[in-house]
Amino acid sequence: MFGFLKPDPVKKLRKIYDKKLEQGMHAQRNGDIKGYAMLTAEAEAIWKEIETLQNKSK
């Protein structure tokens, strides 16, 4: 009945994912390739988590 009040974990993770990608882009533009690689790896891990949550909901 009140399912719309429950927070959506996928939406929250997607915001974090987008933020990590943006931070990685800025690191790459500033020449911090090591930081870019770390942020991209974190973003990929978050993306895998998003995919597992989406597959569970189907």
What does the model show?
The chain is mainly α and 58 residues long. The chain has 2 helices and no strands. It has one domain. The chain is 79% helix and 0% strand. Helix 1 packs antiparallel against helix 2. The two termini are 20 Å apart. InterPro entries: DUF6435 (IPR045493). It comes from Pseudoalteromonas luteoviolacea CPMOR-1. This is Lacal_2735 family protein. Pfam families: DUF6435.
Percent in helix: over 70%
Number of helices: 2
The total beta strand count reads 0
Whole-number mean pLDDT: 92
The major sheet is characterized as: none
The class by helix and strand makeup works out as mainly alpha
Low-pLDDT sequence parts: none
Question: Could you give the distance between the termini?
Answer: 20 Å
Order of helices and strands: HH
Q: Sum up the overall morphology in one term.
A: elongated
The number of domains: 1
Rg over CA atoms, rounded to whole Å, is 14 Å
Strand content: under 5%
Protein name: Lacal_2735 family protein
Write the topology of this structure.
Elements: H1 9-29, H2 33-57
Helix pairs in contact: 1-2
